[in-house]
Write a structure and sequence with these properties.
Elements (H helix, E strand, L loop, with lengths): L1 H18 L3 E3 L5 E3 H13 L14 H12 L12 E8 L6 E2 H11 L1 H4 L8 E5 L7 E6 L2 E3 L6 E4 L2 E3 L5 E3 L3 E7 L6 E9 L12 H9 L8 H13 L14 H4 L11
Length: 266
């Protein structure tokens, strides 16, 4: 009987608790319902709506310039057109850069990637305007393909080549960007090789030239002290034409932004 009475009391107390509004002290000793505060918080988060999807026309002049550059004038996928690069041009990738215009073009000449892989194709898609700088900068994706068959092979400078072996390149999807100068006719900044999905393709999750090195069997150290030493030695001690970074004449607009070089910080 006593146990039954105690059980009834517990049930009554529980029922009162579930129907009573909880209060907490507020400014000046007044009270505010806790349930009211919780409800308002949930309502505000649910009320958020997705922004309208903005799609820029494929005929946008910056897209057309970029497409022509990538396929016909870059020095990587084809011979380059030096006139499309601004004098204060800077190239930057995860492992290579900053390279000024002179060093970038000389590095492209040395490697001769489009000659070593005659059918190289960036397979570009997804041109889009940078929402922060839509007047100058665009972003897009590439997934490189090609076959390492071009004689005499990948150049190292001074007549040295890594011979072709028929390796087939199936690149990872990579993010590229191009920033045009104020005239919107010349390229001021080029970024390449930032892999979006390292589990796609056969480049070992690496992009741009480093991904190609992996596919053809050319050893390239992982980021760390060894790679930093190799890049320093190959750029500042024994430079046969291909630089990992520029040592002089780096445009001031870039050095004010970053002092890192090559694979530092990556």
């Amino acid at each position: 009987m006593i146990c039954y009475t105690i059980l009834q009391f517990v049930v009554v107390v529980a029922s009162m608790s579930s129907t009573t509004t909880a209060f907490t002290p507020n400014n000046g000793g007044s009270t505010t319902p806790l349930s009211s505060k919780s409800s308002n918080t949930k309502t505000s988060s649910i009320a958020a709506t997705a922004p309208r999807v903005e799609v820029t026309s494929a005929d946008h002049p910056l897209f057309q310039l970029a497409n022509e550059y990538i396929y016909e004038k870059s020095g990587f996928y084809s011979s380059y057109d030096a006139s499309v690069f601004a004098e204060d041009f800077v190239f930057r990738g995860p492992y290579i850069g900053p390279l000024n215009k002179r060093d970038y073009l000389q590095t492209m000449d040395t490697f001769g990637i489009y000659k070593a892989i005659p059918d190289i194709n960036p397979n570009v898609w997804g041109y889009s305007l940078d929402p922060v700088d839509p007047e100058h900068r665009i972003w897009f994706m590439v997934r490189n393909t090609g076959t390492f068959t071009g004689e005499p092979g990948l150049g190292f400078g001074d007549g040295q080549y890594f011979p072709p072996n028929g390796a087939e390149l199936q690149g990872s999807p990579e993010t590229f960007s191009i920033t045009f100068d104020d005239t919107k006719t010349k390229i001021k900044h080029l970024t390449v090789g930032y892999v979006a999905d390292r589990f796609e393709g056969n480049t070992g999750g690496k992009g741009a030239a480093v991904g190609i090195f992996h596919v053809i069997g050319l050893p390239f150290p992982s980021p760390g002290p060894l790679l930093r030493f190799v890049q320093w030695f190959g750029t500042e001690v024994v430079n046969n034409g291909a630089s990992s970074y520029s040592t002089t004449d780096i445009p001031a607009w870039w050095t004010e932004k970053s002092t890192e070089k090559a694979s530092e910080g990556y």
